[in-house]
Amino acid sequence: MKPAIRKIALERMQILIDNAITNARIDPELSQRQAFLARRISTRYKIRMPFDLRMVFCKKCKSFIAPGINSRIRIGRASIKSIRISCNLCGHTYRKIIPK
Ligand SMILES: [Zn+2]
């Protein structure tokens, strides 16, 4: 695959996720659709989503979970910086250590 295509696909995913997060509160149906499209780009072009995009999808039920709406994000207070993301749809929580 040409690097240019990869770059465009990544940009499109980023825009779709940004819009999905913005629309989650006002138009949940549209936001689900935008998130779905972003995931489809990732599958079609075999591009792994960067972490900041992947974190809006539940690892367990694969739903789009908008931060603060369908999911709860908590920053750990320990010396090791970590975040915990809980999915409000299936209740799954996962933890991610933030590398410095
Ligand atoms: Zn879930």
Automatic annotation (TrEMBL):
One Gene Ontology term, aspect cellular component: ribonuclease P complex
GO biological process: tRNA 5'-leader removal
Keyword Ion transport: no
A molecular function GO annotation: ribonuclease P activity
Enzyme class per UniProt: hydrolase
Binding-site residues for Zn(2+), renumbered to this chain: C58, C61, C87, C90
InterPro entries: RNP4, Rpr2/Snm1/Rpp21
Cytoplasm found in the keyword field: yes
Location (main, coarse): cytoplasm
Subcellular location: Cytoplasm
E.C. no: 3.1.26.5
Cofactor: record remark: Binds 1 zinc ion per subunit.
Enzymatic reactions: Endonucleolytic cleavage of RNA, removing 5'-extranucleotides from tRNA precursor
Cofactor(s) listed in the protein's UniProt record: Zn(2+)
Pfam families in the record: Rpr2
Coiled coil region boundaries: none
UniProt keyword terms in alphabetical order: Cytoplasm, Endonuclease, Hydrolase, Metal-binding, Nuclease, tRNA processing, Zinc
Function: Part of ribonuclease P, a protein complex that generates mature tRNA molecules by cleaving their 5'-ends.
PANTHER family assigned: RIBONUCLEASE P PROTEIN SUBUNIT P21, RIBONUCLEASE P SUBUNIT P21
Subunit structure: Consists of a catalytic RNA component and at least 4-5 protein subunits.
Family: Belongs to the eukaryotic/archaeal RNase P protein component 4 family.
HAMAP family, alphabetized: RNase_P_4
Protein's recorded name: Ribonuclease P protein component 4
Originating organism: Candidatus Nitrosopumilus salarius BD31
Gene expressing this chain: rnp4
